[in-house]
Amino acid sequence: MSFETRTTDDLIRIANAGLGFTLNATSKPMDDLIRIADAAREKGAKVTFTHLSSLSAYDIKRIKMVSEGRILGEQ
User: Fold this and answer.
1) Considering the entire predicted model, what is its pTM?
2) CA–CA distance from 43 to each of 34, 37, 58, 65 (Å)?
């Protein structure tokens, strides 16, 4: 199932349910990625963002700070 086509609100609902998923980080604006990371942190969901190399080091650090380790990264 591709999560890239889901709305940000849908992804937040999924994370709020405590469910994990994999998402291409280039498919959403940075503010949306931050909101998803925050929802994952709040409910303990494991979310994996792929294609992190396309983001700046600053943006990756922002995601890490918000998620408190709930977001995993892979290429």
Assistant:
1) 0.88
2) 14, 10, 25, 16
